[in-house]
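Quick check before the chapter quiz. The format below is the same one you will see on the exam, so make sure you can read both the input and the output lines.
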Amino acid sequence: MFNLNKKGLSNLIGIVFLISMSLAGLGIIFNAIAQIPEQSLSPALECTEFQLNPPLEINEACYNFSSGDIELIIQRSVFDDSQINDLDFLVSLNNRIISLSCGLSCGNDCKILNSGETKKYFLTVDEIPDEITMQINGCFIESSKISIC
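Here is the expected output.
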């Protein structure tokens, strides 16, 4: 039989304790990672897909002095079938940015385009704008300088 003194036994107990604590820590980390739902990664993947293959495109953006509106012509890709819940326009004015939104909850004046459609949006602003940025479901898609109509 083995004859271990107290000092040798305490080293053995210390090693066993460290190994068991390491395994327990790895188990906790693995469990936390395994419980991350796939849908929490989905917005990032969707955003990347929108940026690589934008479903909407700004064809024209100009400011009409007589009406005080930005006239914005947007076209949706013919082959696009992605779900667009929110369409946001960020308008850069002299020293501020205003946000104008279209979505599923808006009326017919601000409906989101179907595949292959082109629409002219009229966005009312209180001063001459510089640039407009389009976002889909919170993802940056495109920016365009605003010319004079």
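If your answer matched, good. Residues 19 and 25 are 10 Å apart (CA to CA).
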